[in-house]
């Protein structure tokens, strides 16, 4: 039966027409491509097999397919239409290391089977359909519904390349980086083409970034597909045909990685193992940041910075948007507004305020401007196919644009930051790097790029332009800052951009819909491998009222990147701009961010070291529960905190779903059983927040900025559980790369209660010694009367129960074993 169907597919080109609509739309969008008959060619039957190391080559006599075993759980597939593979080069995956030594090729009458310890890749001899199976359960995770196919591109050469897979009736899809709209991607179609999407709407596509990686979940198990192709690419999750999932691109190679789960968390970690994780950011970057387009002149910047200190609202950084420059020329200062930047930056630093500045890619065409002159003399700017310079208008007027895909240009650009670094600028913000051009939108397709020696037109380089810009910024800063961690932020990016920068979601709008959208975008980016993400708190354009702004600050407290930003034509937008009660509530939440700093920092470490996402949607926490595939308005930050933001105007309560296990209400300490929904009070001054029972949640004293004072006292909040729970806390210098030489401290806690006693064990890894001395032990939720407390086998007698029934004691010792014995 299956065979018959497959034959039919090949004889009747039904599938071949499935992308006709796209081709027409593409033609309309791209008048240089002439409309032509669509002739798609499909792989036919396998006639030849070859093995070279961990690579297997299958041929149908014309085209070749390479299957490469990367690890037990990752397999890469490539297709060469006329047997000639393109150069094996990727900006996303710096190295495809082989990480497994045992795998085998087997042959049956129907199939070739490449099996690792975990996964089998099956290639049907007759149909060339490729499928991936879980060895343990024999479940088919992903399976071609037609053979890989291609279509010649007469205009540019090369091919449009296509893959179409079965989409199971109950299958759902997640990830794909920065997409607007609902978290679950099923039933929708997307395009990746980095776009300056000012004021984007719900479901608008494409946006600023390209992350061609998705996760499929069916029958309680997950797998991932990473289609590493920088050309304009497309994904269809059962939209055109509800039983098919397709992905295709306007050029390049059909090359994808199958990434096995079976848990979504495994898929994400394995994707990160290919494309890298964030390095640890400087700790101050995890504080609250204040931005606006633009704070100027200098007196305004000082007024805002001092405003935070006067009102005792913590803040670590203030941003200078484009108006600090001289006529929007990058790497210059407007001397009228900022006569003495060095002194201003120093004075700001003296009150703990870091300065972050904007740098755009568009360089003003001006022979008296040193950056333009250097770029021109050295031939660093992009050119059109006939050698004219690529010119377009951006903020400074007529501009040319460095070719960041050229390693020499990247090196030059990285060095341009020297003066700003010497002035004391602490962070750098790369914007408009889709690249954005006024009027035209972006560069024309014929612009040429070096592409690290693998040359290509803008069709190939567009989606990685922004990532290569911020890569050059990051690498340059790393050299200039001598072992201090750079802080960089970018708007555009491609898979792997997380190795170089944090991201903000771009020009959002001050509406409740955008608050909801931002909440989903941050979660989605987090499970798409780029978890250091935040929205413009308050909305970039439009005017929030006090309620919306405060609800946004509450969500932002649990955004990996926490920054308020607004457009120049809006009213003032500082945490105090809306008066009371909003100012006090905003302060309470920003303070909470600083109290939780040791936990937040530890979650970043967990991401960097082990590839865990920072925000984890419910679909990830309980993938076997299909209901959770549609719950998108709550998430955990790390493993311990469940965040349920209030996203409705006027709401004073909201329904939350608690995942299985037990959870403490962070505010009231009430213990609730997971696996259920609850209606939770949420007056404006509160946002429902829960702590996983058994957690050790470390807390620092409130600071006005990271490093304001030495931390003399650390709270260890220990939440009782009747079962065993692991937690950890990470500490180090906070701003160097010494952690790469093991100069850090990872405290691992195991908490276990049995109804009558509670045991807390600690283990320590790493070489760093923190400089605080007092530990404030704070045990929440003990279900028994306390008789005795032992710490490292000595009895403690000065414990007490406070007014909230928490068992408290302080010590200058970091105890390895604590026993709380019931009466
Ligand atoms: C872009 C950015 C925005 C910035 C503005 C001016 O719109 O997305 O954040 O404020 O340009 O530089």
TrEMBL record:
<protein>
    <submittedName>
        <fullName>Glycoside hydrolase family 31 protein</fullName>
    </submittedName>
</protein>
<dbReference type="InterPro" id="IPR033403">
    <property type="entry name" value="DUF5110"/>
</dbReference>
<dbReference type="InterPro" id="IPR025887">
    <property type="entry name" value="Glyco_hydro_31_N_dom"/>
</dbReference>
<feature type="domain" description="Glycoside hydrolase family 31 TIM barrel">
    <location>
        <begin position="279"/>
        <end position="602"/>
    </location>
</feature>
<feature type="domain" description="Glycoside hydrolase family 31 N-terminal">
    <location>
        <begin position="65"/>
        <end position="236"/>
    </location>
</feature>
<dbReference type="InterPro" id="IPR017853">
    <property type="entry name" value="GH"/>
</dbReference>
<comment type="similarity">
    <text>Belongs to the glycosyl hydrolase 31 family.</text>
</comment>
<keyword id="KW-0378">Hydrolase</keyword>
<feature type="domain" description="DUF5110">
    <location>
        <begin position="716"/>
        <end position="778"/>
    </location>
</feature>
<dbReference type="GO" id="GO:0016787">
    <property type="term" value="F:hydrolase activity"/>
</dbReference>
<dbReference type="InterPro" id="IPR013780">
    <property type="entry name" value="Glyco_hydro_b"/>
</dbReference>
<dbReference type="Pfam" id="PF17137">
    <property type="entry name" value="DUF5110"/>
</dbReference>
<dbReference type="InterPro" id="IPR000322">
    <property type="entry name" value="Glyco_hydro_31_TIM"/>
</dbReference>
<dbReference type="InterPro" id="IPR048395">
    <property type="entry name" value="Glyco_hydro_31_C"/>
</dbReference>
<keyword id="KW-0326">Glycosidase</keyword>
<dbReference type="InterPro" id="IPR011013">
    <property type="entry name" value="Gal_mutarotase_sf_dom"/>
</dbReference>
<dbReference type="Pfam" id="PF21365">
    <property type="entry name" value="Glyco_hydro_31_3rd"/>
</dbReference>
<dbReference type="Pfam" id="PF13802">
    <property type="entry name" value="Gal_mutarotas_2"/>
</dbReference>
<dbReference type="InterPro" id="IPR030458">
    <property type="entry name" value="Glyco_hydro_31_AS"/>
</dbReference>
<dbReference type="Pfam" id="PF01055">
    <property type="entry name" value="Glyco_hydro_31_2nd"/>
</dbReference>
<feature type="domain" description="Glycosyl hydrolase family 31 C-terminal">
    <location>
        <begin position="611"/>
        <end position="697"/>
    </location>
</feature>
């Amino acid at each position: 039966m299956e065979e018959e169907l497959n034959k039919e597919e090949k004889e009747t080109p039904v599938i071949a027409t499935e992308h006709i609509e796209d081709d027409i739309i593409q033609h309309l969008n791209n008048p240089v491509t002439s409309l032509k008959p669509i002739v798609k060619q499909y792989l036919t039957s396998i006639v030849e097999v070859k093995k070279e190391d961990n690579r297997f080559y299958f041929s149908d006599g014309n085209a070749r397919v390479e299957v490469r075993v990367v690890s037990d759980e990752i397999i890469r597939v490539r297709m060469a239409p006329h047997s000639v593979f393109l150069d094996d080069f990727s900006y996303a995956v710096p190295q495809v290391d082989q990480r497994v030594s045992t795998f085998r090729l087997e042959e049956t009458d129907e199939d070739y089977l490449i099996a690792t310890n975990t996964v089998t890749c099956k290639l049907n001899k007759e149909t060339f359909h490729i499928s991936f199976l879980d060895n343990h359960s024999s479940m088919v995770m992903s399976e071609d519904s037609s053979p890989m196919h291609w279509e010649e591109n007469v205009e540019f050469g090369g091919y449009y390349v296509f893959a179409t897979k079965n989409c199971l009736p109950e299958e759902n899809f997640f990830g794909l980086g920065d997409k607007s709209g609902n978290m679950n991607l099923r039933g929708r179609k997307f395009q990746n083409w980095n776009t300056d999407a000012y004021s984007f709407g719900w479901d608008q596509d494409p946006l600023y970034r390209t992350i061609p990686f998705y996760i499929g979940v069916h029958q309680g198990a997950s797998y991932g597909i990473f289609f590493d192709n920088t050309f304009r690419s497309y994904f269809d999750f059962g939209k055109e045909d509800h039983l098919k999932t397709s992905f295709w691109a306007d050029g390049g190679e059909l090359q994808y990685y199958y990434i096995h789960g079976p848990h979504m968390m495994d898929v994400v970690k394995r994707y990160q193992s290919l494309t890298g994780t964030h390095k640890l950011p400087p700790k101050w970057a995890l504080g609250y940041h204040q931005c606006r387009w633009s704070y100027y002149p200098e007196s305004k910047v000082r007024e805002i910075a001092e405003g935070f200190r006067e009102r005792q609202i913590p803040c670590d950084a203030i941003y200078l948007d484009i108006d600090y420059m001289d006529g929007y020329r990058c790497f210059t200062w407007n001397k009228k507004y900022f006569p003495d930047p060095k002194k201003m930056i120093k004075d700001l630093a003296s009150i703990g305020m870091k300065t972050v500045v904007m740098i755009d890619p568009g360089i003003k065409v001006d022979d008296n401007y040193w950056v333009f002159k250097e770029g021109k003399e050295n031939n660093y700017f992009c050119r059109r196919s006939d050698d004219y310079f690529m010119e377009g208008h951006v903020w400074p007027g007529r501009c040319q644009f460095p070719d960041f895909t050229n390693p020499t240009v990247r090196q030059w650009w990285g060095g341009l930051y020297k003066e700003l670094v010497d002035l004391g600028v602490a962070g750098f913000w790369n914007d408009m790097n889709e690249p954005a051009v006024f009027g035209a939108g972006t560069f024309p397709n014929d612009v040429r790029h070096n592409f690290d020696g693998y040359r290509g037109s803008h069709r190939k380089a567009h989606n990685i332009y922004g990532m290569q810009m911020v890569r050059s910024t990051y690498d340059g800063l790393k050299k200039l800052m001598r072992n201090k961690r750079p802080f960089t932020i970018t708007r555009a990016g491609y898979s792997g951009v997380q190795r170089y920068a944090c991201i903000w979601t771009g020009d959002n709008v001050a509406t409740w819909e955008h608050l909801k959208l931002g909440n989903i975008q941050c979660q989605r980016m987090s499970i798409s491998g780029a978890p250091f993400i935040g929205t413009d708190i308050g909305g970039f354009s439009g005017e929030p009222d006090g309620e919306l702004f405060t609800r946004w600050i509450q969500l932002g407290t649990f955004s990996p990147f926490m920054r308020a930003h607004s457009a120049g034509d809006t009213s003032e937008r500082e945490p105090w701009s809306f008066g009371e009660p909003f100012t006090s509530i905003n302060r309470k939440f920003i303070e909470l961010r600083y109290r939780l700093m040791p936990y937040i920092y530890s979650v970043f470490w967990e991401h960097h070291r082990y590839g865990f996402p920072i925000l984890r949607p419910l679909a990830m926490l309980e993938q076997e529960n299909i209901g959770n595939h549609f719950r998108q308005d709550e998430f955990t930050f790390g493993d311990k905190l469940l965040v349920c933001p209030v996203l409705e105007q006027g709401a004073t309560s909201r329904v939350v779903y608690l995942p299985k296990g037990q959870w403490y209400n962070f505010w009231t300490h009430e213990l609730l059983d997971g696996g259920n929904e609850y209606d939770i009070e949420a007056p404006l001054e509160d946002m429902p927040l829960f702590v996983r029972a058994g957690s050790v949640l470390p807390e620092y004293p409130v600071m006005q900025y990271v490093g304001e004072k030495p931390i003399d006292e650390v709270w260890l909040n220990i939440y009782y559980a009747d079962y065993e729970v692991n937690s950890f806390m990470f500490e180090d210098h906070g701003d160097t790369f010494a952690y790469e030489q093991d100069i850090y401290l990872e405290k691992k806690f195991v908490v276990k209660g049995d109804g009558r006693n509670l045991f807390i064990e600690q283990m320590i890894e790493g070489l760093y010694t923190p400089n605080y001395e007092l530990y404030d032990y704070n045990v929440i939720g003990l279900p028994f009367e306390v008789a005795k407390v032992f710490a490292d086998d000595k009895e403690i007698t000065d414990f007490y129960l406070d007014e909230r029934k928490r068992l408290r004691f302080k010590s200058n010792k970091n105890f390895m074993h604590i026993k709380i014995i019931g009466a």
